[in-house]
Amino acid sequence: MLYYLIGFWATELERAGLGSVADLCRSIMFRAAAASLTGFLLCVLLGPRAIRWLGGRWRERIGNDSARLTEMQQAKRNTPTMGGAFVLAALVAASFFWANVLNPFVFLGLAVAIGLGSLGAVDDLTKLTGKRRGLTEREKLVGQSALGLAIGLSLFWLTRNSEFGTKLVIPVWSVYVSLGWLVVPWIALVITGSSNGVNLTDGLDGLAGGCLIFAGAAVGVLDYIGGHARLAAHLSVPYVAGCGELTVLVGAAVGATLGFLWFNCHPAEVFMGDTGSLALGGLLGYAALVPRQELLLIIAGGVFVAETSSVLAQRYFYKATGRRILLCAPLHHHYQFLGWPESKIVVRFWITAALLSILAVATLKLR
Questions:
Q1: Do the strands 175-178 and 167-170 form a parallel or antiparallel pair, or are they unpaired?
Q2: What is the pTM of this model?
Q3: pLDDT for 181-211, tens place per residue?
Q4: 359 phi and psi, to 5 degrees?
């Protein structure tokens, strides 16, 4: 909204000697910071009311395949859940205020967040109404894949004539592999994988939220560089015109997640639920795809990769041998079973996420 108002009043501001103010408000970095602060404040100020409303309707039900894990999590029973709904609302509101939502990359990013948030809400409500233990894995994968393919087709159409639109970038060596039309299922795979990675990590108070903040900050930097012609050329990374505007959307997401963490830190007053984890995870993957830096997300989102890998390794190793690699999967529960306090696990995972995010951005100078 403010983005368009500034453009509308630009001439008048310049006549009044306030051209520098108009330039500042047009600046992507300023608007990204402002969107982040707006998302944070919306969550912190409106969070208590939203939590009371959620608590009167939807509270967490504890139930796992592991009896020991179920017993360990009994203290979390009846905590308000689906808090991702107000995170998503703050993210969208901050984006509409500070971002150019007519930018096709921003528009598609909002579609990813809202679409996957809606899928997550259906999963949460199915679980909370007691009909089933949420959607089945197949049902969720079908929904995620369908949205991912739609976004993949849209990105393919938008960038089909650009130099890097259908190429996979290999970090560090600046090697480009042409995927052609296979870029469409590849985009769907990245969005689905990122969405599920965050969802699997969301098992301890503040764990997914904190890791999302660090990974999101790194991806926001990649979006800004990818949309800045001189920086992209200097660092030998793909230049994608218009991609920089995604920095504002990612900033709004990071700020809203930080505001949610205010209430989600141990002991949590509210849980994100699939409503938030699927939406924010999918948006993270999408925001890395647009500047063609999705392989760097493997580093920046390394905690999510490790959590997902631990689940897959546990499942398939058990099917093959009848034995388990970990005491419990995902990985954070393994450390719980070893006797680590929840707060220690979360903070150490945060530290790991921060270091990996720094490493991901630092690799840009290795080209």
A1: antiparallel
A2: 0.94
A3: 999 999 999 999 999 999 999 999 999 999 9
A4: -60, -40
